[in-house]
Design goal:
Layout (H helix, E strand, L loop, with lengths): L1 E6 L2 H11 L6 E6 L9 E2 L7 H10 L4 E4 L2 H6 L1 H6 L4 E3 L7 H4 L1 H11 L6 E4 L2 H11 L3 E5 L8 E4 L2 H13 L10 E5 L4 E10 L3 E14 L3 E12 L6 H21 L5 E11 L2 E8 L6 H8 L4 H10 L13 E9 L11 E2 L2 H4 L5 E5 L2 E4 L2 E4 L3 E9 L2 H13 L6 E2 L11
Parallel strand pairs: 1-2, 1-4, 2-3, 4-5
Antiparallel strand pairs: 6-9, 7-8, 7-9, 10-11, 10-13, 11-12, 12-15, 13-14, 15-20, 15-21, 16-19, 17-20, 18-19
Helix pairs in contact: 1-10, 6-9, 7-8
This protein binds adenosine monophosphate (AMP) and glycine.
Amino acid sequence: MRVLIVGSGAREHALAWAIAASPIVEALYAAPGNAGIAEEARCVPVSAEDLGGLVRFAKAERIEFVVVGPEAPLVLGLVDALESESIKAFGPSATAASLEGSKAFAKDLCARAGIPTASYRRFRDARAAKAFIAEKGAPIVVKADGLAAGKGVTVAADRETAYNAVDAALIERQFGEAGAEIVVEEFLTGEEASFFALSDGENALPLIAARDKKRLRDGDDGPNTGGMGAYSPVPGFGAALEGRVMEEIVLPTLKAMREAGRPLKGLLYAGLMLTEEGPKLLEFNVRFGDPETQVLMMRLKSDLLPALLAARDGMLKAFDLRWRDEAAICVVMAADGYPGAPKKGGLIRGLDGASADPAVKIFHAATRREGERLLADGGRVLSVTALGQSLNEARASAYAAIDRIDWPDGFCRRDIGISTSA
Ligand code: AMP
Ligand code: GLY
């Protein structure tokens, strides 16, 4: 089978690595890919958001299956565009991608379907939003409705911060149209977990849970980022909790999407808060998580590609995937300046030595090659990932690998997977 992966992050590198190992793959391409993905797939210089360019490439190269990594092309309608040319694609239609593309849509769906989540109100008027915040008090959470590159959520410890977040979205329009509406919601406390399930519209296949560490600095300090590390399994996330998440969140969501005339195919990513009352939904995504996918692919024993195809073809019912019992961890190395303006162009050396340990796999995000030299080319640059008999063992391997990487402009959290911050 001729397969194209869309995207250029470490998530897409992990997907490319897993898919390249499938015996049914005949040719693997990535658009646009990166220097790491280039070791698994032929990279083509077409942007992930150039829908026309991607469809033209897929037709010209007789691509038979397209796996879309990031959310932006899904929300723009890439899967619809490909399918209308009879090219099979993994991922939701644009209408189903609203589950991620509009937090207001997702919250209304939860309310209709009785899915446990934070209580909320939607606002387009700043004065009304502030009156609601004044009444509810802090802490409180303000979210831009649309896609805001991970910057649209403010967890406000005091009212002033919440008012400022309202102004940033509704008055200053810092997120453009994505912030023309906001959701103001109840602050939830607990540990977070990300849970993943494949969906073919009708049937769901649970994958596994991972924990994403979103804050920039050790001890869960500093601003939120795209994710500075992840690990799986999540302590305490056993079969009972998984069953509850499937019954209370995943299956009712898929049913509500069908009832809304927007059946969801592809991936359902439930961002959860594990509260004292049970798991509650923080957000939905309709694509694989980054960096969670890096640990999921390390733990996956089965061939990924047939499962993605089954989700596309409505054939998930009889499907099963097998996972390793070992723990996997991913530590993200980012360029100085991230999540603001990262320092680009720094020389990265030592990756061969760092990945000599067979337990270690280094997935690339923003990297590029200039001749033989590997250069950093963005914010999150490397995902150093490792397997181990325990989380501690995986962690030791990942950090030993990191210590062998020579990249003066790079930094990482040092506490990913340490039990005190688990
Ligand atoms: P989201 O993009 O909606 O997942 O939000 C990003 C992060 O903000 C989450 O991973 C949580 O850490 C935090 N967050 C979002 N919603 C809430 C909430 N209702 N209560 C507490 N923290 C939240
Ligand atoms: N790890 C967070 C995300 O993929 O949205």
